[in-house]
């Protein structure tokens, strides 16, 4: 008898190259051409790349100079986040026609729990097809979807037939699907963890499944328990339309403003380490990482990402914060950086903030 819940029907919808696709839709001259949103030939980083650009190895967080080197025909366009948000809201309204259990992860992806849905349709596969069709008809953009019994498998499945496709993993297919899955395809297994697993002889889900929980915990800490469960199809995280606002945060105001993302990476390493120590002191973890940026003109900006599992580890905090750092181009020099973690696994009465005092 399987240990996982067979009854839930979860859809993960992921827009295809969202920012770049919006730019190509709004400007016909860009269609069919390699497009990079953000960055330039001489500075900055790419926020998003069209599929035509991805064929050359251009991807998000790549420097504009390297993008130009990889793809000499690349076309750089400035990001228009107000436009992306406008379309994202239209897509969100479509989701809500089917269920109120919608958990947005970002502007271009969300989880939907359609176990009980407003259409009374017992087929999550057909619902996903209808949602993707409506997104195309109402926005002109394509989306991909993954459908399964939990958020983790749905997330992995949505990447299976991209772009403009979907994949359903039924309860009877879950175990074989996970056993055959390359370990690098497991959502939440980054490059560093993947390489470490390779060194331990773990290349597929089946390899992972053969390791004991003690072995995984010894080599990967608390994440090892997570890996032990997900490869068995066990991931009971609910689709939560409302996020927990309470958080634990660490931030630092610099003596001199920072002008380079490279220097900011170094500072984020230190901030992530301090945040990890505070989380362990309170014995808590969270799912939503927020990067706080205060510019030299005192304007404030935050960027967030929600993971499918709880974290408190420095390396995961740093990797996520770094990804958020390169999400879009800096508009000025930076006087403060902070990382906060919310959507916690325990009750915290108030936000805990530590101000780092040492010199950088």
What does this structure look like?
The protein is of the alpha+beta class. It has 13 helices and 13 strands. A hairpin with a 4-residue loop joins strand 10 (286-295) and strand 11. It is globular.
List the SSEs and their pairings.
Blueprint: E1 10-15, H1 18-26, E2 35-37, E3 48-49, H2 51-54, H3 64-70, E4 75-77, H4 81-96, E5 102-106, E6 109-113, H5 124-139, E7 143-148, H6 151-158, E8 166-168, H7 174-180, H8 191-199, H9 205-209, H10 213-220, H11 222-230, E9 247-258, H12 261-282, E10 286-295, E11 300-311, H13 314-325, E12 334-344, E13 352-355
Parallel strand pairs: 2-4, 7-8, 9-13
Antiparallel strand pairs: 1-6, 1-7, 2-3, 5-6, 9-12, 10-11, 10-12
Helix pairs in contact: 4-5, 10-11, 12-13
Labels describing this entry:
single chain, Alpha-Beta Plaits, globular, 4 domains, 360 residues, MutS, DNA mismatch repair protein, domain I, five-stranded mixed β-sheet, 13 strands, DNA polymerase, domain 1, 13 helices, alpha+beta
């Amino acid at each position: 008898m399987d240990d996982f819940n067979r009854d839930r029907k979860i859809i993960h919808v992921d827009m295809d190259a969202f920012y770049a696709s919006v730019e190509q839709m709004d400007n016909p001259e860009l269609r069919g051409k390699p497009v990079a949103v953000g960055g330039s030939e001489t500075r900055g980083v790419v926020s998003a790349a069209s599929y035509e650009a991805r064929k050359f190895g251009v991807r998000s967080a790549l420097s504009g100079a390297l993008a130009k080197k990889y793809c000499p025909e690349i076309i750089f366009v400035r990001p228009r986040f107000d436009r992306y948000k406008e379309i994202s809201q239209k897509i969100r309204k479509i989701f809500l026609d089917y269920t109120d259990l919608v958990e947005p992860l970002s502007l271009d992806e969300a989880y939907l729990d359609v176990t009980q849905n407003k259409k009374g349709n017992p087929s999550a596969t057909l619902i996903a097809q209808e949602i993707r069709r409506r997104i195309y008809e109402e926005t002109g953009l394509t989306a991909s979807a993954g459908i399964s019994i939990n958020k983790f498998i749905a997330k992995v499945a949505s990447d299976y037939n991209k772009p403009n496709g979907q994949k359903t993993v039924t309860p009877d297919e879950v175990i074989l699907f996970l056993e055959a899955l390359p370990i690098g395809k497991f959502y939440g297994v980054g490059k560093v963890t993947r390489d470490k697993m390779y060194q331990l002889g773990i290349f597929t889900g089946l390899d992972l499944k053969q390791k004991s929980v003690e072995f995984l915990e010894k080599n990967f800490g608390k994440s090892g328990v997570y890996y032990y469960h997900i490869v068995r199809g066990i991931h009971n995280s609910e689709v939560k339309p409302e996020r927990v606002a309470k958080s634990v945060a660490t931030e630092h105001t610099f003596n001199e403003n920072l002008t380079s993302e490279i220097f900011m990476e170094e500072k984020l390493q230190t901030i992530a380490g301090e945040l990890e120590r505070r989380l362990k002191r309170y014995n808590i973890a969270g799912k939503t990482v927020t990067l706080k940026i205060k510019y030299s003109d005192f304007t404030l900006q935050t960027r967030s990402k929600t993971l499918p599992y709880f974290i408190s580890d420095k390396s995961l905090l740093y990797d996520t914060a770094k990804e958020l750092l390169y999400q879009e181009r800096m508009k000025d020099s930076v006087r403060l950086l902070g990382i906060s973690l919310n959507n916690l696994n325990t009750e915290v009465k108030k936000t805990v903030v530590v101000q780092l005092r040492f010199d950088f």
